[in-house]
Amino acid sequence: MPTSLNYAYNGQCEGRVRASFNAAVPSLGRRSLAGGGMSQLEFSWELSGSGWATCRIADGVSERKDFVSYCTDALADVLHGVVGLYGRTSVQRFSFDLEPAEVRWVLRREGSEVHVAIYRFPDMSTSFDAPDQAGALSWSSTQPLSLLGHVVLEAAQSVVRLHGEDGYRVKWVLHPFPVAALQDLRRLHLQHDRCERQHSGLSA
């Protein structure tokens, strides 16, 4: 697979049961478009069991939901991927392990817009080096970077507010809450997107 962010596979990731915990509130954002109308995007991240999370993204037309394993530091990868779009690299990739499937997000920035494409591969152990087009395109949408940054930041903050850093580590098991990545995204979002919200702090 072309350059992936912060991917670390741990083979000892099986034998866990998905169980429902408190649901995180989805982060919903809207932005006015240059040609009129509104762009809508929702993103949520819910710790849904020991070593599992439910990731959902929707744009008002369609949605994608996956049950993500802790075999990768998945929420950190999302944050790092969005942070990278504010820099000089216009394409960011990261993968979720669904045990055994791979879900690969490809973020392509063109000006102030980001095209989000999500590809699914049946077996991550054999697909990690495969080109994007070898997977099945399962969801795509083009959104303002400011809106993508906003909803991802809001969702990550809602997770740490709900569980705390210690509670997150208990449920996510292998990885601590990505505090530094969250702080980087907050700084860049406020600096570049002139968001009216301050998104202050890690706690309620």
Structure description:
Helix content is 29%, strand content 32%. With 204 residues, the chain is an alpha+beta fold. β2 (38-49) and β3 (52-58) form a beta hairpin. α1 runs antiparallel to α3 (145-172) and α1 (74-85) packs parallel to α4. The longest helix has 28 residues, at 145-172. The radius of gyration is 16 Å and the shape is globular. The protein starts with 26 loop residues before the first strand and ends in an 11-residue tail after the last helix.
By DSSP, the count of extended strands is 8
- Provide the spatial order of strands within the biggest beta sheet: 1-2-3-4
Average pLDDT reading:
85
Helix segment tally: 4
What multimeric state do the chains show? single chain
Termini separation comes to 39 Å
Share in β-strands: 25-35%
Major sheet, described briefly?
Answer: 4 strands, antiparallel
Computed over alpha carbons, the radius of gyration is 16 Å
> What is the approximate shape?
globular
Secondary-structure-based class equals: alpha+beta
Uncertain segments are 1-12, 14-25, 32-36
